[in-house]
Model the fold of this input.
Amino acid sequence: MGIGFWASEYMARAAEEFGIGGSVLTLGRQDIWIDDRQCEQLITTMNWGAVNDRGVAFHDDSRASKFKELREKGLARRSNDSLYISDHLLFALLGFASCDSADIDSFEGATIIHDFNHPGLAAAAGKQFDFIFDGGTIEHVFHVPNMMRNIYDTLKVGGFVMHAAPSNNHCDHGFYQFSPTFFYDWYAANGWSIKRADFFKYAVSHDVPWEFTAYVPGSLDLVSFGGLDSALYGTMFCAQKTSVSTWDRIPQQHFYSKSWPNAAGARDNVASGANDDNQ
Done:
């Protein structure tokens, strides 16, 4: 599990577009693959500040003070003689007030210990969060329905969840590879407000830019049978929990349900509710 520059920029733009902030929970303790150079690149790309010989000059005093506070604490991670920023520092840069992580074990320093195969994450955390980030964790959890229930239980009404999940050419990386339709159909059926859905192409190297393609059900039909190349592919998906959201409605795949005449009314109602920003 880990977050590089391109996933960070994606999160940053979504946070600014939808007003995502407050407390964040990562599912699994995330390694951050962003060094000082890329950190400065993110700051200038997002126009949070300017980089000069004296360091970073932030436009926002609160972001500057938080960055300085965490820097002085020495929150960083060393790997292969490179020094990367910490998850706490990254999410502070993204504008979040606090950062927690949940995992089955404390071996990577998670602050909340829980097996996602079983309900009870919210009880283990002792609170709900404003933002939950699944950065390549869901594919390692066998009981996916309980994983989705844990996300629902641990997220505040009005809060956001974002998945970054493998979709193709990840054989034996986890239990599953997730098609975008899994997230789109589950969140639509359960009355969440879908904010962003993208299919992306990427490489093992963190220096190669990610290529994003906006996703809606049916948009990948032409490549669904052998139409992709040998690259790695994944899904980025963001949804907001509303006052009518649930976790226990079992979706039917849109590819098939779109052809059922007697399902048209129900399907239209679900689709309109899933993309309604009114809480």
Notes: Confidence is low (pLDDT under 50) at residues 264-274. The first strand starts at residue 2 and ends at 3. The radius of gyration is 19 Å. The chain has nine helices and 14 strands.
